Automatic annotation (TrEMBL):
PANTHER family: GLUTAMYL ENDOPEPTIDASE, CHLOROPLASTIC-RELATED, SERINE PEPTIDASE S9 FAMILY MEMBER. It comes from Inhella proteolytica. Keywords: Hydrolase, Signal. The keyword DNA repair does not apply. Residues 639-792 form the Peptidase S9 prolyl oligopeptidase catalytic domain. This is S9 family peptidase. Pfam families: Peptidase_S9. The keyword Signal applies.
């Protein structure tokens, strides 16, 4: 026995001296694609609320691997670092910040010096434009910093650690210089982990359908750890002095809003018992009102967990609370009139309730809605709001002009959720001097504005419409010229409109329009020489049932007339309730902006033709549309391939099909149910719908209500028919519900077990979309290598 123990110890010593097994190295695409991947993002423009300052926010394009590799806690559906109490900012982190006054027009800009270390993010203007906020995430804390627009450097709010476990980081303003944020509450060491034991869940009573969610609580220790880290203190920070004060008691606070000019603070916080079947936002909650010092004015509601609520249902009691940012300072919320059950017959689904200051009386009903409540936006005049409701069964939405005094509302418009050509747009928003966000209106308070894309068969012509408070015709006060994508952003005054011009190969360019004159605020900047060099053609065609379709065909810079290239088709299917709406989706739409990481567009630099933005409509009743999903995909693919044949620039005998997420699911289905393609690429998809048994995408029936459809549309269950080589790529940390990496792993195992050609690439530290430069390069290399192996080189 002693001899064996001695031999075992010797073996362990020898193993310790052996070199660690090297990880698979990241691959990189050819030089031209590498250069395109390394192009810097254009700065994002942000205008101060007082319209006096222009901030140019420079964000990084990728997240460093070292940052992605930092350990995160995964509790109650959120991922965060224990030190910083926040999720990494990712590619939204700032690389630079520049400010320049808008007047005079040629005033010099100044670069804001950001101290080294950590990751800067979350730029926000103070309501009066005199200050701005920044956050910096380090290994030890998330810090709050502030600066003056007029000059000087940034300063840290000393002694303050922000808590972003549940809070989204959006500040709430008590005044132009006092801001509410959530800070880490004082606490001791986190609870120690016990020895592992059994994990038990039990359910009794009514049905509780649940989507497959990652990172849920599993043990009592998880619950204690979540409560320890998520506990936050509401804090008011004074930007004139840099000091701060506590407001109220700490708790599991996640949402804060200010009513009026600080008359009350609306706070939403979680309470026990926590659920091990839902993420944190479906836990029980308490909604309460505080005064400026943090004293409780009133408890508004106690919301139960969502257990037993249908996926399309809502809580039966109060929900969705709003603090009016205007002078009325009232609190609004919604209550279900059908018990929260969408299958129950009811003349009205929801009603809006209102509680006026001093918040001690009884709430009053403001409006009843035949459809389900969607959104409430307050007008600048303080007397009206825009109320939106949605009928999911018919895929319709309605918006009303709602008088806040409870008098009769007026229907402004009704349209399909997928409407493009007659879409009224969205309200033009502005920030009030004390911080509230409202729908922008005229000085006299008798009208308000909407901004829309102006989609048409020939392209987009953005517009501004003026709506009258009185029942008068809508007036169009601005529309971009044909062929110019000029998007309105804000009114500078009654005449001057701040807009942003977007051109195919250039960074968005902000400017000021005064009647027929437009003045650029920044010089034009090309996004990428490689992006400009790629040739592009817009294709319009019809499928056999007459539904309009379209796509962009991208060809290599050296492509010549008469050449035929192997091609990759990249698409994403979308559902429509009728053929007219599906045809609208095929309208001309320009390719603007730098392609995202992992885009197949860059394969054109390697000689391949690439088809992107290919419409893949699935038309039918919203409840049963997936019954014909496979047949309509077949029809779409056939029409697209025929169009490519007629075009002549593509060798249709060498076609691959691919997509991301729902597009990956589409690609696997087309390989299983057509013979049009020689290979496929599927990234971050779901292939076995029995693993998403309570619905997916637009599907609202569960597996047991639509068993045949679930089976039919699951390419995993038809794996024996996927004869063409399939490349599967998935982020190992994919937190998107329904698309865990397990989906790709199981499909790969099925194809390999059946003796079919497949390759599985799991990307460590990556989620549903790509974040690191290394992963972006690897994906480009994988796609290029796969096409070269199975379609041949990208040559005519």
């Amino acid at each position: 026995m002693a001899a064996r123990m001695k031999a075992a110890a010797l073996l362990l010593c020898l193993l310790a001296w052996l070199p660690a097994q090297a990880a698979e190295p990241y691959r990189q695409p050819p030089a031209a694609t590498r250069a395109a991947l390394d192009a810097t993002l254009p700065a994002r423009a942000s205008i101060s609320p007082d319209r006096r300052w222009l901030a140019q926010i420079e964000t990084r394009r990728y997240t460093p691997l070292a940052e992605l590799a930092q350990p995160l806690l995964r509790l109650a559906g959120v991922r965060f670092a224990a030190g910083s109490l926040s999720a990494p900012p990712g590619s939204a982190a700032l690389q630079g910040l520049r400010l320049r006054p808008l007047l005079p027009a040629q005033a010099p800009e100044r670069r804001i010096a950001l101290p080294s270390g950590g990751a800067w993010h979350s730029f926000a203007w103070a309501p009066d434009g005199k200050h701005f906020l920044l956050q910096r995430r380090t290994a030890q804390a998330t810090e709050l910093w502030w600066g003056s627009s007029a000059g000087g450097g940034v300063q840290r709010v000393e002694g303050l650690r922000l808590n972003g476990v549940l809070w989204d980081g959006e500040p709430a303003w008590l005044s132009a210089h006092e801001v509410l944020v959530l800070a880490a509450a004082p606490k001791g060491a986190p609870p120690a982990a016990p020895l592992p034991g059994p994990q038990v869940q039990e359910h009794q009573g009514r049905a509780s359908p649940e989507r497959p969610l990652p990172d849920l609580l599993r043990t009592e220790h998880d619950e204690a750890l979540f409560e320890h880290h998520a506990r936050a203190q509401l804090v008011a920070v004074n930007l004139l002095s840099g000091g701060w004060r506590r407001v109220g008691e700490p708790g599991l606070i996640h949402t804060v809003a200010v009513a009026g000019q600080g008359q009350a603070i609306l706070v939403e916080r979680l309470v026990r018992p926590f659920s091990r079947a839902f993420a944190w936002d479906d836990f029980p909650q308490v909604i309460e009102l505080l005064d400026r010092q943090g004293r409780r004015l009133r408890e508004l509601a106690r919301l139960p967990s969502r257990q037993g609520i249908a996926i399309d249902g809502v809580l039966p009691g109060p929900r969705v609370f709003y603090a009016s940012p205007t002078a009325d300072a009232a609190i609004y919320w919604v209550e279900a009139l059908d018990g929260g059950n969408p299958s129950q017959r009811a003349s009205y689904r929801d009603r809006v309730m209102r509680l006026e200051p001093p918040y001690s009386g009884e709430p009053q009903e403001v409006q009843r809605m035949p459809y389900r409540f969607s959104r409430l936006r307050f007008l600048e005049n303080g007397r009206h709001a825009l109320l939106t409701e949605t009928d999911r069964a018919r895929a319709l939405t309605r918006t009303y002009l709602l008088p806040l005094d409870g008098s009769q509302s007026r229907l402004l418009f009704e349209h399909a959720l997928r409407e493009r050509f007659r879409h009224p747009g969205a309200p033009l928003m502005r920030t009030l001097p004390h911080g509230g966000r409202v729908v922008a209106g005229s000085k006299d308070g008798e009208s308000f504005y909407f901004v829309g894309s102006g989609a048409s068969p020939k392209g987009e012509r953005p517009f501004v419409d003026r709506y009258s408070i009185k029942d008068q015709p809508v007036q169009r006060v601005f529309q971009a010229a044909e062929g110019v994508l000029e998007m309105p952003l804000a009114w500078l005054d009654e005449r001057q409109l701040l807009t942003q011009v977007e051109r195919a190969h250039e960074a968005p360019q902000p400017g000021v329009r005064d009647g027929a004159q437009w003045r650029a605020l920044l010089p034009p900047r090309e996004l990428s020489a490689a992006w400009r060099a790629i040739k592009r053609q817009h294709l319009s065609f019809k499928r056999e049932d007459g539904v309009e379709m379209s796509a962009w065909l991208l060809l290599p810079p050296d492509h010549q007339e008469g050449q035929r290239r192997p091609a990759l088709i990249w698409a994403y299917p979308r559902e429509f309730t009728d053929a007219e709406l599906a045809s609208q989706a095929a309208a001309y739409s320009e390719l603007n902006g730098l392609p995202p990481p992992g885009s197949p567009i860059w394969l054109a630099l390697e000689g391949y033709a690439v088809v992107v933005e290919a419409t893949m409509p699935v038309v039918g009743d919203s409840r049963t549309v997936n019954d014909g999903f496979v047949e309509q995909l077949q029809m779409n693919a056939k029409a697209l391939v025929e169009q490519l044949r007629e075009h002549g620039g593509v060798d249709i005998s060498r076609l691959a099909i691919g997509g991301q997420s729902y597009g990956a699911y589409m690609a696997a289905n087309l390989l299983a149910h057509t013979n049009l393609f020689k290979a496929g690429i599927a990234r971050g998809g779901a292939y076995n719908r029995t693993l998403t048994p309570f619905g997916f995408q637009s599907e609202r029936r569960n597996l047991w209500e639509a068993r045949e459809t679930y089976m039919k549309v699951s390419p995993f269950l038809h794996a024996e028919r996927i004869k063409e080589p399939l490349l599967l790529i998935h982020g190992e940390q994919d937190a998107n519900p329904g698309t865990p990496a397990l989906q790709s792993e199981r499909l790969h195992q099925a194809l390999a077990g059946l003796g079919l050609t497949t390759r599985l690439v799991l990307l460590p530290l990556e989620g549903h979309s790509l974040q690191s430069r290394e992963a972006a390069g690897q994906v480009q290399w994988e796609m290029h290598n796969w096409l070269r192996r199975h379609l041949g080189p990208g040559k005519p």
